[in-house]
Each structure stands twice: as C-alpha cells, then as structure tokens.
Amino acid sequence: MEFDPLTLLTLKYHGRSIAVIREHCLNHESLLAIARRTFPSLQDVSAGDIVLVAPVPGSPHTEPVELLPETWTTVCHVVHTVTIALQSETKSTCGGTTVRGLPVLSETHLPWAETPLFRLPSIRRDPPVQSKAQQSDDVLQAISISFPEHPTSFDVSELGLLGKKVSRLYELIDPEEGYSASNSDLTFGNSFLNNDRTFFDYGIISGDTILLSLKPSRRFLCKKPVVYLYPPWSLADVTVELALASSWRFSAVHPPPRTTVPPGEPHTAQSLTWTVAAEPDGTLVDKTSGMQVSYLYWEAIATPQPVTPGASRATTPIADIDTFDPARPSLNPGDSVLLPTSKVTGYLDLALKALTLHTEARTSFITYWLPDMLKHEYVALRFVAQDAYERAAPMRIAPAPDVVTRVFMLFRGVPVGDLGLWEAARARTVGTGTDGARSWADVVGVDTLRAADSGLFRVLEWGGMEVQ
Fold first, then answer.
1. C-alpha to C-alpha distance for 176 and 380, rounded to whole angstroms
2. Against a cut of 0.85, is the pTM above it?
3. Where is the Ubiquitin-like domain (predicted)?
4. I want to staple 156 with a disulfide (CB 3.0 to 4.6 A). Which of 75, 172, 180, 456 is the partner?
5. How far is 311 from 334, CA to CA, in rounded Å?
6. 3-state percent breakdown (helix, strand, coil) of the chain, nearest 5
7. What burial class does residue 231 get, using C-beta atoms within 10 Å of its C-beta: 0-12 exposed, 13-18 middle, 19+ buried?
8. Contact by Cβ (8 Å): 354, 371
C-alpha cells in the first residue's frame, strides 16, 4: 500500500519535530489540543499566547506566515509543517535566537522555509550554485537531522552554518542526546561527512536533511560489580541469583556460578546463580568450587539500541533518576557533577562514605577507576538510582537480606573545549562543601541507618561504567 504523506502533519516546537495525524487537527481547537498533548510544556500556555507559523503552498509569499485561528481550517489540508512559538517569546526577543536548535520568532525574523515531510537527503555530484545571500555569514541557515532507525527528526540552525566545519553540528545538538563525533557518523546521500570539511563542500544547502547514526562498534562495558554479603551470624547456604536485562550480557564471572551462563545472543536475557556459605566478616566459601572469596564478581557488555532522541531525562542529581539503560546510559550536564581529575578522589571518598561503603570497598572502588579517570582532565559522573539499576540487573538472595545497597557509577571524560556545555554540572560542586557529595545517598536511595547496622543481614554491591 502506497504511503500518502498528506495523511501526516509535522509539528515543530523548541527543536523537536513530531508527525501527527492530519485528520485530528482539522480545526484550530483540535490542533492546539494535539500540540499540548505532544509537547507537555504547552499544557499551561493560553491559546492566545500560542503562535502558529507555516509556509502556505501556492501563496505569493515564499516565507512562512502566521496562521490565525480562522485561517487554519482553510489551509489545514495543504500545509505540511507547522512551527509553534509563543507570543511572549516573540515580543521579548530581538532578532532570531535559537532554542534547542529552533529559531524563536520575532516581529522581524521568521523561521527558515519548510522542509518537506520525510524528505530524504539529496544526492549531488557537484555543489549547487548558491546565491550570495545563501552563502552569507549573516543569514540564518538550518539543517534537519534524521535517524535511520526511526522517523524522528529535529533541526539545528545558526548564522552562516553551511560555511562552517561539519563538526560544528555536534556542538549545536543538545548534549542530552548523547551524540558526539567520537561515537556517531553523519551521512548525506551516499557520502560520509568528514568533520573537518564544511557543509558547502558537500553541496548541502539550508533545509537539507543529514542522517545521524551511532557507530556500530560502540560498546559499553560494565566493570567490576562486586557483591559483598554480611550476615549477622554464620549462614551455611546463601543463594544469590543475578539476572540481566536483554540489553546486556555477562562477559566475566567469579567464582564459577552454580548454574551455567547461557551462551545467548547479544539481546537475549541471561542469568546465573551462586551458592555460598557466608560469615559475619564477609568471608564467602563458594559451594561449587570450594574457593574462599571476599565477594562475588561479574562484568557485562552492553550493546546500544536505537532510541528516539529527546526522551525525558532527569535534570538534577538530587531528583529521582528513575531510568537506566545499560545500552544507552544517560550522563549529561543535567544529571551529573563535573570535576577536575585532581579533585575526583576526594569527592568520591565523601560520596562513597555517604553511600555506606566501608573503608576497603571505598579504597577498592577509587583505585579501580582512578587509572581510567586520570586519562582525562575533567570527569563528569553520577550514581544510578538503585531501583532503576535493579530493573536492569535484578538480584534475588535467599535467605532474604534485611538491607541491600547497590551502588553503580557512570562517568565520562569531558574535553576542555566542552566545559561550557557542562557548566550546570560543574556548578553543583561549587560552594556545596561535603553536602553535595553526600546528596548521592538520596539519589541512589540508600537506607544509611540500616546499611550500617551490623545486627542485620546486609548486602553491598558496587560497580560502574565509563560512557564514551
């Protein structure tokens, strides 16, 4: 069955482009209702403050125009894309500014001409002839970014963008999307784009679409989660069952588990079981191998899966960070802290102490990750909420412990040139003293009193992952 593009209408707002069913938007009221449902930040905005702008096919005006409520029913069947802006923004903004890549309208500046719905990248052998205005550094130029795995797209724009290096595109993309030159590829037509060349070199003009995709070799390694058991008295038989969500798989375990780790494909869920005798000092004797160990060890590899950009993420490290996908871990200025590597060990010691890691666990944690962190001048890090981590790697223990503490850190190096993008993360470590580091106990969800009570059966786990 042939697809008719006119069955869909594209709504654009603050850098997001979302296709909706046209039949659901045939009058002004229904269009506003769909817009508010699609973009939740519009829910409390009055109808009088919402401005609809679109180019009208066949109109003598080539530039987009504002659509009044009584106009929409006339043009709703021919308009392809509607850009949404707020009257309050247009009155307080001079010239064209950018909000997450989409120009904010002003009385003297309208957004760029419409990009047709589901437009594919053009394939050109030679750069097109462009007017001086198109090549000028004083002209707002826009590029639409789409993804091979799904129809979602968004736009980025800047004065004179097309004459700048391709690498500039990554600086204009919201850092929360997680794309960078090191982990992604840009393609136009049949060509991979070289980050050191300009968009003009590839014949790209304003309104063209570029495909953005993760490099297929990208992998995330979950390193050294170790599980300590501290019963209040000797336990002859403790069963620890650990399962993994389908987005990652075991790469190493010790001691050998009682049940065999299934070979599995990369996206097939896996599980394993240890049976041990446990002593109050943390000493474990594995029932399968007879080995005496201090903890149970495992590592896993995660393979990224396609996801829609712009998904909701936490904005502060003291808020509930309730999602964790090991195949696409979120680490951005809104959910982390930024530190020079010279201050990382002191910060971690305070944070880990607040998370109830004992002296040996804190020392092992810091010395294990320190060599990787010292490769960078600055490091951004965060700890994952325990309930979110539990969904990615559920663990069941019998007899049931009184308290379980699972600490999992995400970190990444931040180049000096990107520090401006991470100002919000750096600000969280300025002037907060020890309270900032200690706030992670609330984020992770640690019951600090019970976790320190030696009269209870306590379980402690720590591990981490470098996001590259």
1. 13
2. no
3. 166-215
4. 172
5. 13
6. 25, 30, 45
7. buried
8. no
